[in-house]
Amino acid sequence: MAKAPVNRYSSLIEKIFFDRYQEGATELEFARTDIEDAAEKLGIILPKNLGDVLYSFRFRAALPEKIIATQSDGMEWVIELAGRAIYKFRLVKINRILPREDLARIDIPDATPELIRAYALDDEQALLAIVRYNRLIDTFLSLTTYSLQNHLRTTVKGIGQIEIDELYVGIDKRGCHYVIPVQAKGGKDQIGIVQTTQDIRFVEEKFSGMRCRAIAAQFMDDSVVALFELALQDDEVKVVEERHYKLVPARKINQEAIRDYRD
Predict the structure, then answer these.
(1) Do 168 and 147 form a contact (C-beta atoms < 8 A)?
(2) Average pLDDT for residues 9-24, to the nearest whole number?
(3) Looking at the predicted structure, is the pLDDT value of residue 187 above 70?
């Protein structure tokens, strides 16, 4: 995870954290309005997008060094939703989900329309479109799946408002139905426990009785998409399966590789 620069975001989050922190604490709750209070006390001009302060430390940048120094060995602070406009710092086991460098890449004929590639506005949007047009969820899970909704904003009891990057439903050969939340990570964003937990809790609440198969998609170099199936085990995110798909023109598909895939 990228090291957070010493800037107004760092100053604000440090103020909120240390106003509540006592040695031995594992959870620290705060409200969105505390960002405004911290800014007033520090004489900091608030950013136009107030939510970006929290989003930055939840998904992009590391927390400031002063906060990291309070972590015990093998543990790290994360910021989770705890209700409507309510958040909490929580101390969890360190868990980095990164694409394996030694995993074989599977060639897939690229079915992404050029027009989509030309007008995708950001990495996340492009990744979701590539996954959808190439039916990578079907290939990865061996299911027939359909995109139900993307950028779904909803609420989950005990968590508050969440956003799911894309929600699929699927069916297998026996007729069993599945709900498949997908999180897309591009650029410097990393897969972590926070969004995975939110996605799984959403399915448990809204689609009780249906099987959840949580997926994360990550852009790699050289037109490769890494897909992970994730699960929660003992309050940790675990990788159930990982595959890397390289999108190539159909004419460049290696026939020998196709034969190897059969084996």
Answers:
(1) yes
(2) 94
(3) no
What whole-number distance in Å separates Cα of residue 169 and Cα of residue 16? 40
pLDDT, greater one: 111 or 83: 111
Encode the chain in three state secondary structure: CECCCCCHHHHHHHHHHHCCCCCCCCEEEEECHHHHHHHHHHCCCCCCCCHHHHHHHHHHECCCHHHHCCCCCCEEEEEEEEECCEEEEEEEECCCECCCCCCCEEEEECCCCHHHHHHCCCHHHHHHHHHHHCCHHHHHHCCEEEEEEEEEEEEECCCEEEEEEEEEEEECCCCCEEEEEEEEECCCCCECHHHHHHHHHHHHHHCCCCEECEEEEEECCCCEEEEEEEEEECCEEEEEEEEEEEEECHHHCCHHHHHHHHC
List beta partners, residue 34: none
Average pLDDT, the chain: 87
Q: Which residue has the tokens 């895939």?
A: 261
* The CATH number of the domain covering residues in 105-262: 3.40.1350
The single residue listed with the structure tokens 């890397």 is: 244
Domain ranges for the chain: 8-93, 105-262
Place of tokens 């975001």: 9
Global pTM? 0.76
Q: Which residues are CB-contacts of 14 (< 8 A; sequence separation ≥ 6)? A: 64, 66, 67
